[in-house]
Design a protein that fits this description.
By secondary structure, the protein is of the alpha/beta class. It is built from seven helices and six strands, in the order E-H-H-E-H-E-H-E-H-H-E-E-H. It binds farnesyl diphosphate (FPP). GO terms for molecular function: ditrans,polycis-polyprenyl diphosphate synthase [(2E,6E)-farnesyl diphosphate specific] activity; magnesium ion binding.
């Protein structure tokens, strides 16, 4: 067991499509298996007392995928939250979303906002779903809001600093993740949380996300802790 657990873990859930293909299944079936892995990771975070889990569920670049796959990825939150909300309430889980949900289908937005609304007073694990999220877009939308506040005299140029800027990001109330895990073998950040991971440990594993489990999460955290111990 590790002596200290990060407060905030972020995961790029990559490899669903390849997981499906390797089994003669469709990419969408891979995504569905990814949802089941998401549930396992949520349970694991509660077990090991992680406070915040941010999951990259749909990037602003994912719109360029085949229409049927995009439609399925838009439908998954509807299915997921409809089924899982009572369990989330029982386990005191709070759902947050980071990203631009104004341009997603109504049914998806409704399922997500309902989940946020119902769980807003829960005080346990925060599951922050990055949906229609892009790191550059996050920074740009923050700059735009800030410029508007300056223009309307709600904000003085001299008062702009890192802490204030963070309040304009999609992740506002959340501390930065201490570790960013990417499954699926690629070693890239892929426009995820660009500002927020500036000090995070980066952990890459070849395991496809549908195979990711509690032991692997603990290994990622443990290995990051070991590296810190060596560096100290
Ligand atoms: C990347 O794998 C994964 C995604 C684009 C989607 C991840 C989404 C989920 C696990 C489910 C989201 C569900 C909810 C309820 C929010 P990939 O398709 O790029 O895999 P590949 O690299 O093998 O092609």
């Amino acid at each position: 067991m590790f002596s200290s657990v990060p407060e905030h873990v972020a995961i790029i859930m990559d490899g669903n499509g390849r997981w499906g293909k390797a089994r003669g299944l469709t990419r969408s079936e891979g995504h569905y298996a990814g949802v089941q892995a998401m549930e396992r990771v949520i349970d694991a975070c509660i077990d090991i007392d992680i406070k915040i889990l941010t999951l990259y569920a749909f990037s602003s670049e994912n719109w360029s995928r085949p229409k049927a796959e995009v439609n399925y990825l838009m439908y998954l939150p509807v299915k997921f939250f409809n089924q899982k909300l009572p369990g989330f309430m029982k386990r005191n889980i709070k759902i947050l979303v980071s990203g631009d949900i104004t341009t997603i289908p109504d049914s998806t937005r409704k399922a997500i906002t309902k989940a946020m609304d119902k769980t807003k007073n829960n005080t346990g694990l925060i599951v922050n779903i990055a949906f229609n999220y892009g790191g550059r877009n996050d920074i740009l939308q923050a700059v735009r809001q800030m410029a508007e506040d300056v223009q309307n005299n709600h904000l003085e140029l001299d008062n702009i600093n890192e802490g204030l800027f963070e309040n304009y990001l999609y992740t506002k109330a959340l501390p930065d993740p201490e570790i960013l895990i990417r499954t699926g073998g690629e070693k890239r950040i892929s426009n995820f949380l660009l500002w927020q991971v500036s000090n995070a440990e980066l952990y890459f594993t070849d395991v496809y996300f549908p195979d990711f489990n509690k032991e692997m999460l603990m290994e990622a955290i443990g290995s990051s802790e070991a590296r810190h111990a060596i560096a100290e």
